[in-house]
Here is the input.
Amino acid sequence: MVKRCAAVLGVLLIAGATAGCTEPAESSLAQRLHQDADAIHALGISGVQARVIEPDGTQSVATSGTADLATGDPVPSDGYFRMASTAKTFVATVVLQLAGEGTLTLDDTVERWLPDMVRGNGNDGARITLRQLLQHTSGIHDDLPGYTTPEEYTQQRYDIYTPAQLIARAMAHTPDFAPGSGWQYSNTGYILLAEIIQRATGRPAHTEIETRIVTPLGLRGTRWLGDSPTLPQPHARAYQFFGPGSEVDVTDQVALEPENLSWVTTTADENTFFRALLGGRLLPADRLAEMKRTVPVSGDLETMWPGGRYGLGLAERPLSCGGAYWSHEGGDGGYITLNGVTGDGARSVVVSMSEALGDSPEHILAQESAAATLIDHALCP
Here is the structure.
């Protein structure tokens, strides 16, 4: 997830509603979704929206809290939010498509596509493969700019960085480990992947994502915003909790590096994407199987994702009812989103929270755990 800040990251209920598929508004699944959304709101999260899609297409939607602390307006059930690191799965899907087409291979080195970009202080792009970038096993150290106080937010919210600037920050550090010998989440690795997509296709990564994923799937609520600091309507305001008496509206800000990170989406679109991906509509079976080959996570995410593993732009997390689900959460600019889909793409869920509890590791973990509980309940009906 992008570390933009300290975080590592009215109730409306709608159930039923795809053609020919309905269920009572107070079904057990809808009730439980409502309760879990309320439990997240009770932690102090200003607004919550969640959507579950069942194998027959039936949808249940719950919202809790408010979209605006100043007005008390209800949370829109179809509101936009910043996708943040969930976009990594989109980037990984494009890379795997290009590999399937023979444009590149996962064993290509970074040096092959981006000569002289990864070097210095022990960094060596000739030893790092695209597969390692995708799986966060490259060892490249992350050093993204970000705010940790209200004052820093005000000062930095309109700053724009080029990919070269962010990669150069990482190159100022020695690697966390030798390529392939460990695991550490690296946003810089995916900035490099987006640059490789552009080098390999001649088009920006966001254009490839739009052409290959957004348009074919009809994701009308998924948009690349470039360097715009505002979201389309409707949306809940985003807040960052820095501590008692310091709950700041952080809705307006430019993505750290617009080419890769400036995406907004909806719970409906995010569900559609993950169902299509795991259902085999975006990648052939062999490429999807490669994406699902995982290694254990470590570091902060070992605590955040108990039992979690990571494939190629796709995380695997255990279910309380047995088995596992696939996901990629995102957190940036006050919006924190978790998602999950079963291995066959049949059942999926997305929960978006419009506030980040960034004042302590305990509160960050509590927010993550409450959202993960909602995901687990939705996928273990």
Remarks:
- The radius of gyration is 20 Å.
- The first helix runs from residue 28 to 42.
- The first strand starts at residue 12 and ends at 15.
- Confidence is low (pLDDT under 50) at residues 2-25.
